[in-house]
Amino acid sequence: MHTDTLTPGIASGRLTPAEYAHNFCDAHPPMNLAQARVEADRCYYCYDAPCQTACPTGIDVPSFIQRIADGNLRGAAHTILESNPLGGMCARVCPTEVLCEQACVRNTQEDKPVEIGQLQRYATDHLMAHPGKPLFTRAAPTGKRVAVVGAGPAGLACAHGLARLGHEVVLMDAQPKLGGLNEYGLATYKTVDDFAQKEVQWLLSIGGITVRHGTALGREVHLDGLCADFDAVFLGLGLGGVNSIGISEPQASGLRNAVDFIAELRQAQDWAQVPVGRRVVVIGGGMTAVDAAVQSRKLGAQSVTMVYRRGSADMGASGHEQAWALENGVHIQHWASPVQVLSENGQVSGVEFERTQMVGGTLQAGGERFVVAADVVLKAIGQTMVAQPLGSALELQSGRIRTDAQGQTSHPKVWAGGDCRAGGRDLTVEAVEHGKVAARAIHATLVAA
Amino acid sequence: MADLSTVFAGIRSPNPFWLASAPPTDKAYNVNRAFEAGWGGVVWKTLGEEGPPIVNVSGPRYGALHTPDRRLIGLNNIELITDRDLHLNLREIKEVKRNWPDRAMVVSLMVPCEEQAWKSILPLVEDTGADGVELNFGCPHGMSERGMGAAVGQVPEYIEMVTAWCKQYSRLPVIVKLTPNITDIRNPARAAKKGGADAVSLINTINSIMGVDPDTLAMSPSTGRMGSHGGYCGPAVKPIALNMVAEIARDKETAGLPISGIGGVGTWRDALDYLALGAGNVQVCTAAMVYGFKIVQEMHSGLSNYMDDKGFSSVSDIVGKALPTVSAWQFLNLQHITKAVINQDSCIQCGRCHIACEDTSHQAITASKDGKRYFEVQEDECVGCNLCVVACPVPECITLRDLAPGETDLRTGTVVTGGHGDWTTHPNNPMRAAA
Known about the structure:
The structure holds 2 protein chains of 2 kinds. Chain A is an alpha/beta fold. In chain A, 35% of the residues lie in helices and 18% in strands. In chain A, helix 10 (153-164) links the parallel strand 2 and strand 3 (168-172). By secondary structure, chain B is α/β, with parallel strands linked by helices. In chain B, helix 3 (115-126) crosses helix 5. Classes of the chains: A alpha/beta, B alpha/beta.
């Protein structure tokens, strides 16, 4: 049966193969030689560069850009990966517009920062294509063993750092593939060519890291057991739960968590097999909401609306991301929160919202009501850490694991990093920094013992 | 992992990247920072004889040639030798050398052309523990007016004489720094060698004036409306220096004399150019002054990765490797035919190749095809001059291809044989030798 963007309800195969290929190709294609040279030449090689300071992993940006300009691509990749072993994925997904590129001195007079993210991709892509001899080697074996739970950016970075220092690492993840959100969360058009897996393979090539797939904390392994069997434990659990939208939800098809939809799309071998509603409502205003909304459009949804309870400036999605959503034909409604999910015959049919406003510093609902019709409603109002597998072993703060600046938890043998750790910014690059710093802290503790 | 350590004129250095005698090596503060950044050695800014030191102008001391995006491609300076007391300098040199024993510490000297002047200063330098001296025969301004600097460097007899005094009155390796403001660099180099020099370093700076202020019509730079010629350096001078290095390295009389390459070194690629043409190490100034000392880390990484990639395990493996390819024009193979090729996938159709060739060369690039804008080389006109390649704004869009044996050069009708025939035996050459 032929389907297209007008086919009512939820359907797959709405687009032609050519349209799918076009929609899910690299949203920001890599630079060619000419572009890289011209852009690298724009870098002023600042002293105590603001871009480096803005980078959560402290990548020496002027250095790697100069090395690109010099034709020393391997050296450029070394500079990047020394500070951020997931520099390849970060180059594709980092919100540089609010980090290094925002800090670039070329904003001041020209409003035109150096395209640091693209240059970083140029260098790391080259290394992946021409790995040569290993960039990093392991120090002499220490005889110590560390368990790393969660193979997202935090866990991967921690494992790599520990392996470099000579420790044996057992890296475990609940999923069949490693990478965490790099593999299951980031938008498809940001991570083409199975890059997440290629990066994981490069990272593991340092050696000393044993992988256990399908191994979850609280299920196959337990925290007290890990503490007994290993010299230290690092938790990079991420956020396994989602916030409830706070209203009663009918048992209806078409109502799901945005993260599940995104993961399904990422793992799909054939986009034509992924069902999408004709009309889609995404509740939420962060990067997840944008990814879910935009990808729904790219699958052929006729109408996609994001509804966020406050204004554009309050949204978790950066200005860049919001513009990207609008560019892709997503409608964004501000200042409205959901009141009721409507359904008919076990199928979602829409969402009723009420207007909100700020009154004396607090957000108040109860304004005018309106309904947005929908075949699919995706919930994207934030994710939460699943604390239950930790029992009462670790102190929490605002629902996440409390740690010191090096990532050590309230338990002397346990460190944590990434989204599961309290007080962070929920960025891939920050998760990497957490993992990196924790690896050094674990090392210092283990060699002192 | 490549080993970048070098031994130059008997002086050990962890890498071939030295700082040249100039403001960056003026005092301990600078040199300590340089060594912390990773420079392998420095040549301390030129010391003058005991007594009140020279005085510099209170600016400006520099003029520059920039690209439109303010990339510096040439620097002009009227900075003189050290304006600090001799003994203060000597104390600092001793202390810095003591703190950085593995780094090369060479002291640049410029004193009057009298035996006693050199005899007095050399023991003072030796007592600091420095590794060598560099004789400044190159300053083209300020000192040459007093019979020093370039005033010596332009007179081979003086070079030989002073070099010989230095070898007589000191145990230290003597590096003679040459000025490029001369007709034939081989003469001063030979003179240095005859005087017993352990090495030569070149180039010092080139006589230059940067330009004119269009509003005041004063020369630029100027100190209160008046200016002086200065010394030109930076990326623009590298090709001039490379040629001189290669001449000295190839000259029978000076072949084998260690050469320290100076002039426009800013990246490992520049250093590679010097090394391959016969330099044993390089000295940097302009790039460090414009970007800071950190650049040595990029140079180190680049050279090291290059050496690993090409299988060179030490820097000395590279030295002089390109020299066998440097010949005289008359020996170039006139039977080697190349033609330009435009890659139509990369071509952005700016038309610059066409106009360069049409206006100024051989009218070998057409500008349209079937009524559409299209740029293509006509091999029956193309002489393979490479002008289109250098004018084209897109990297690697236009290349030269070598015609293979058996191919016909459409321009001349000659069939390429793969053989060698140069001007020395060419029928048009009235001085030709028998083939």
